[in-house]
Amino acid sequence: MCYNISTMGKLRRAGIIVRVALASLVLFTFSSATQAADLDDLYRQREQLNQELEKSQSAAANKSNEVKTLEKQISSLESDISSTEQKIGGTSKDIELTQTILDNLSKDIEVKKQALARLKASLDAALVEIYRFSARSDLELLFSGDSLGESTNQQEYIEAVEIQVKQVHQQVTTAKGDLEKRKSDQEAEKARLDDLKNQQESYKKGIEYQKGQKGKLLGMTVEQKKAYEEQAEKIRQEVAQVSGEIYRKRQAAGGGENLGGGSGYNYSCGMVDDWGFYTCQCTSYAAWYWNVVLGKRWERGDGPSGTGDAKNWPSLAARNGVSIHSTPTIGAIISWPGDDVYIPTQYGHVAIVEAVFSDGTLDISEYNWIPLSFSRRHINPGKYGSYSYIY
């Protein structure tokens, strides 16, 4: 078979073009498949990071609760220490008063002892006189005085002195016994107070030890909380990086989204976006974020006017296959119905949760806030009325 050279050249060139086209098709198919595989890996990576982020946030929240509990326990121990110190002060005053009473009783007892000594001397002298008087004979007694009456008076006087001395001695002895009994009682009371003070001081030392241990534990818990929060912040940054990479790959792969701008959301205002929401509104931005950045489905669907308003988004959750929650998570939609002066009741407001902190505040991204802002940090969601989370 003979072929025209010119024809053969054309055939060769055609074959080269076909092979190049086929190779390009294979490369395009391979590139698309590779991009899809890369996106799947990035989605899995982001999901894993989000799970790790939730664990870190949960751990940080637990540590925050532990910190509050320990602070309350330490405050209670400090109050107990203060109360015990007041009790110790009161007991010390009681001990001082008891010691003063004991000192006074000791002085009174010493006075009674001296009085008894003097009375004993007087009694001894009287007894000697009585003995000497009783040892004399009647004749001696008769002639010892000027008269019989004088002798009789002397005997009666001595006997009267003896009786008086014995009576006074008995009174002083009784008084001394009473003082000693009171002193014994006060000594027992002082011993009881000393023991009570020792118990109170021992109890105070125990509380102070507990406070010290709780303080050490509090310091450790605060450091652990800080470490979890730092870990969560690091993971949030990694999630942001992965999300940015997903966004770039989706943008490079095309797909009909009108992407661009600093935030990635850049639509001409006054139009209806691909998901049924008016552009340049908070609802359009949140829908874009879920569909484009997160790769999750969120659409308005059918319904009368107002169906897509922010305040009605909780009603759209079931239609889009998600649920309503009372606790936040990264990437969730937060929806305010607009029951506060900050948000118009007519429409409500939605935003995307970018970060969750242990004190209950959030970082959010949004669109068409007044004043206009793309993101806000550490907001208290309850400041703007009731709210719910969609994810």
Taking the sheet with the most strands, its summary is:
6 strands, antiparallel
**Amount of helix:** 55-70%
Q: Poorly predicted ranges (pLDDT <50, ≥5 residues)?
A: 1-33, 254-262
Question: Could you state the order of secondary-structure elements as H and E?
Answer: HHHHHEEEEEE
CATH architecture of the largest domain: Orthogonal Bundle
Structural class of the secondary elements? alpha+beta
What integer is the average pLDDT?
79
Strand content: 5-15%
What's the number of domains?
2
What coarse outline follows from CA principal-axis ratios? Answer: rod-shaped
**In the CATH scheme, what's the topology name of the largest domain?**
Helix Hairpins
Name of the CATH first level of the largest domain: Mainly Alpha
How many β strands by DSSP? 6
Number of helices: 5
Q: How are the strands of the biggest sheet laid out side by side? A: 1-6-2-3-4-5
Q: In angstroms, what separates the terminal alpha carbons? A: 72 Å
Task: Outline the structure in words.
Residues 1-33 and 254-262 have low confidence and may be disordered. A hairpin with a 5-residue loop joins strand 3 and strand 4 (362-365). Helix 1 runs antiparallel to helix 3. The radius of gyration is 52 Å and the shape is rod-shaped. Strands 1-6-2-3-4-5 form a 6-stranded antiparallel beta sheet, covered by helices on one side. The chain is α+β, with helices and mostly antiparallel strands and 391 residues long. The chain has helices at residues 5-135, 138-144, 148-253, 282-294, 313-316; strands at 324-325, 333-336, 349-356, 362-365, 375-379, 388-390. It contains 5 helices and 6 strands. The chain folds into 2 domains: 45-236, Helix Hairpins (Orthogonal Bundle); 257-390, endopeptidase domain like (from Nostoc punctiforme) (endopeptidase fold (from Nostoc punctiforme), Alpha-Beta Complex), CATH 3.90.1720.10. It is 67% helix and 7% strand.
